[in-house]
Amino acid sequence: MKKKITLQIQGMECPNCAMKLESIEDRLKGVLRAEASYHKALLTVEYQEELISEEAIRAEIARLGYQAV
Amino acid sequence: MVNILLAFLTGLTTGGLSCLAVQGGLLASSLAGQIEKDLQNSPPAAHKRSRQNPPPRSKPQLAKPILVFLLAKLIAYTVLGLLLGWAGRVLQLSPYTRAFLLIAIGIFMLGSALRMLNVHPIFRYFAFEPPAALRRWLRRKAGSSADSPLLTPALLGAMTVLIPCGVTQVMMAAALATGNPLQSAALMFAFTLGTSPLFFAVAYFTTQIGARLERYFMRFVAIVVLILAIITIDSGIALAGSPVSLTRWFNQQLTGNLQPSLVEFQPPEDAESSSQVITIQVQNYGYEPALIRARADVPTRLRLISKDVYSCALAFTVPSLGIQELLKPTGITEIEIPPQQEGSRLTFSCSMGMYGGVILFEDV
To answer: To 10 degrees, the CA torsion angle through A27, A29, A30, A36?
Structure first.
């Protein structure tokens, strides 16, 4: 089942961060779409619940050096 | 016949210095993105390591974005040279348009600096964020690195074509005069190439000094951008005709001319003539006199005398009358000014607002 979450991100210092965060779309199996906004400090992720959990997504965000709050 | 070597040498000397004041801001802004990225990519535990085994210092990789910026600038100006050879005059901006452009760029730089200093989240909007679809395309193109840090310096380098400094405008006029697209492009290429070493040296060494400051580096860059933003806005304000300008005040301090003396009325050459002639000496550091009294309600002729001048002062403008004249490095140029009302003030300046003066029209 598809799920969409929007996370407030801390640690985004420049527009490059948005692209870096969006790269989870390519690297995490089950993530269908990731769209980040540096201006709003938000990350919207659409994913398949059967394939990946929200915790795993948050962990990947943390691994990239950001904090999802 | 225009000498390509002379264009290169002009760029190498006065061109580089003159253009650095305004275009340096764009270069600093473009480098800021690379510095931010490099600092983020450096391992977070690096600062905690012991003194015995210091980690390899993660210096921002600045040479590449500077070179990309300069290459984009070189290409943009060469293309401009080509266009000048074809059409030329179409691209000439009025003093007010250029003033507006300078102020807008200055505000953008100011916002960028405040963003880097994390003053308020609102300043995040001063950073250009490519549309999501473009980001996705770039990410896939770039592969796993997911970043395209060289796009910004490339775009900003090309953008410098919109804010040519005084010496560049002189060169553009020379390019226009060739009437030959290839020759014109070669001239602009040689000139822009000449300005590159100074741009590179200043940008590279300034930022390397900053890199030693490690965690304070971003603040250092932000403050440099902030200062350049203030200079850019001030130049725009001066070009728009403001009699008060920080840049001019600073130039006066540098040249030791603390307060320009008020020059008395200059008599007409011909006693029977009702018109008046105002003689202004064009210098490398500005105009003399800078404060002039003149008769109101009579036609005025400005006589601009230059001798071995290669600064921005050659691009003479009177914004309120839409006058812009590119003077010869050595020569006399005369400009007719219609009668002005008593009490009016006519502000003149170089095209970048760095040097200028005022004519006060009085009843005699």
So the answer is: -10
| Chain B residues in contact with A15 (beta carbon < 8 A) | 33, 127-130
Residues 6+ apart with CB under 8 A from B269: B277
Dmax (CA) for chain A in angstroms is: 33
Nearest to B361 by CA among B248, B266, B280: B266
Residue B312, amino acid: C
Does A28 contact B at CB distance below 8 Å? no
How far B199 CA sits from the closest chain A CA (Å)?
25
**Separation in Å, CA of A22 to nearest CA in chain B:** 8
Nearest to B276 by CA among B306, B254, B255, B303: B303
Q: What is the pLDDT of residue B47?
A: 41
Q: Would the CB atoms of B129 and A22 count as touching at under 8 Å?
A: no
For B327: left if phi > 0, alpha if psi spans -120 to 50, otherwise beta; the answer is: beta
Task: Tell me the one-letter amino acid at A62.
Answer: A
pLDDT tens for B244-269 read 777 667 766 665 554 445 555 566 66
pLDDT tens-digit map of B273-296: 677 889 999 998 888 888 888 888
Interval B20-31: pLDDT, tens: 655 665 666 566
Query: What long-range pairs does A50-56 form, CB within 8 A, spacing at least 24?
Result: A50/A1, A52/A28, A54/A3, A54/A5, A56/A28
* Residue B348 token pair: 């003149």
User: Which tokens hold the place of B179?
Assistant: 């009437």
Residue B136 touches chain A, beta carbons under 8 Å: yes
- Our CA-based measurement puts residue A17 at a distance from the nearest CA of chain B, in whole angstroms, of 8
Largest CA distance in chain B: 88
The dihedral through the CA atoms of B294, B297, B301, B306 has a sign that is positive
Residues whose CB is less than 8 angstroms from the CB of residue A53 and which lie 6 or more positions away in sequence, other chains included: none
Please state, rounded to an integer, the average pLDDT across all residues of chain A: 90
**Cα within 13 Å of Cα(A38), Cβ side:** 21
